[in-house]
Design goal:
alpha+beta, 11-stranded mixed β-sheet, two-stranded antiparallel sheet, about 25% strand
């Protein structure tokens, strides 16, 4: 038997090996980014909106100034991202753009008023922020989106598709912990955005019993007995008198919270989490941040102007396709030329035939080799000794004719003054007294 192959640490810790469930893949995912001028609490508002879109959003998305929309669109497919929300700020005001990836449409909203989540929570008397509520996606509630017009239908479908759908037959009420309310005002054409957490409270029991059921320690300082605490009149909850029967529901399932029983009555309470937004629809574009304008709130154009714009867009599209074809042809020509040059260079790198090699060597002019013995005869005028030039140094290169001199100062003891003398760098030749050039 062969040895069992061991898996490395990187393979063991690889989280991509585990296949995601089908519900997670089909759920709409989103990117929330910001663009434009800095300041104006733009970054904080972007983070708060990411908190609303949890858990199917990139909560720790790191974006840079160099990043473009194409960068986010290119990685949207592998990450199952279906929507892109862009907060931008200009000199005129702040805007929110919601895009459906990868081909649109795109909706542009103007932000008239907004409040951050920290300001909303700090203004409440009872702050109820539960981190476990952000493990599941919120419930979307649309109000007064039934007006006529194509833009109203597109808005309603866009907001609904940003959050995962709920199957009423299989839904678990314990996962419905948050809700997003979108209210449209037909008179002002404004949209109010609110974010709440849902709390279920038992109904029909006294305040003392409710404390005991919910696990709180009651204060029996003013009571003689526990029965007096439970049956004392006036111990009803203050909210019991304010609760309307329309706020009470019958629970079809068992709820994890204490005091809520299956098939029992409970009241639904909403605690605001923030942020608050007041939006106005400006325009709807057919493509991704581009394309035909389907609706515009401020500008109205005639049919002739619309046809003229459409013709310009078609001509631009045709010109783009034409340039693309020309570019592809030029690319093919360059690749063919590159291949030919490659083949030509490979042929030149092949070995030369021996006959051609011998003929080329014969035609070459042999350069005279340097010989120390000849150099000695020319300079000294005498024949060198037999042992002066050995065989190893016979073919060595001769020293250069022109030898540099360096100037050194040597102290003369007799005159007690520095004397300038010249010393040759190389070996001094005693037999030659000729001046060197």
């Amino acid at each position: 038997m062969g040895k069992r192959k061991r898996r490395g640490r990187c393979v063991k810790n690889n989280t991509n090996v585990n296949i995601e469930p089908e519900e997670t893949v089909e759920a709409p995912h989103s990117f929330v980014i910001h663009k434009g001028l800095p300041g104006g609490n733009l970054l904080e508002l972007t983070k708060d909106f990411r908190k609303v879109m949890e858990p199917f959003t990139a909560i720790s998305l790191k974006e840079r100034k160099k990043n473009t929309i194409k960068d986010f669109v290119s990685v949207a497919g592998p990450l199952h991202v279906s929507h892109l929300s862009i907060f931008s700020r200009t000199e005129v005001g702040m805007y929110l753009k919601i895009c459906k990836l990868p081909r649109g449409p795109t909706m542009t909203f103007k932000i008239h008023n907004f409040s951050l989540a920290r300001d909303v929570v700090s203004s409440l008397k009872k702050q109820n922020v539960v981190e476990a509520a952000f493990k599941h996606s919120p419930l979307i509630v649309l109000n007064s989106f039934t007006a006529e017009g194509l833009h109203m239908k597109l808005m309603a479908s866009m907001f609904q598709n940003m959050f995962p759908t709920i199957n009423l037959t299989n839904v678990d009420l314990n996962t419905v912990r948050r809700c997003v309310l979108m209210n449209y005002n037909p008179s002002t054409n404004m949209i109010d955005f609110r974010h709440y957490t849902i709390k279920i409270i038992p109904v029909g029991i006294s305040k003392g019993v409710k404390k005991v059921v919910q696990g709180k320690v009651p204060n029996l300082n003013r009571c003689n007995d526990i029965s007096e605490f439970l049956t004392k009149s006036g111990m009803l909850s203050e909210s019991e008198f304010e609760d309307d029967p329309s706020n009470q529901v019958t629970l079809p399932q068992k709820i994890i919270s204490r005091g809520n029983v299956e098939s029992g009555k409970s009241a639904i309470k909403l605690h605001e989490l923030g942020p608050r937004l007041t939006l106005q629809l400006i325009k709807i574009e057919d493509g991704l941040l581009d394309g035909e304008v389907l609706y515009h709130n401020l500008i109205e154009k005639t049919d002739e102007e619309k046809l003229e714009i459409q013709k310009k867009r078609e001509n631009k599209k045709k010109l783009k396709e034409k340039r693309k074809k020309i570019q592809e042809k030029n690319k093919e020509v360059k690749e063919n030329l590159k291949q030919k040059l490659k083949e030509k260079s490979l042929e030149g790198m092949k070995k030369v035939n021996p006959q051609e090699k011998s003929s080329s060597e014969a035609n070459e002019v042999k350069e005279p080799e340097d010989n120390d013995a000849d150099y000695y005869r020319e300079e000294v005028g005498e024949e060198p000794d037999e042992d002066l030039f050995s065989s190893s140094t016979a073919n060595a290169k001769r020293p250069p004719k022109f030898v540099q001199f360096r100037r050194k100062r040597k102290w003369d003891d007799t005159n007690k003054s520095p004397v300038k003398r010249f010393k040759r760098d190389g070996v001094k030749n005693k037999n030659s007294n000729r001046k060197r050039k």
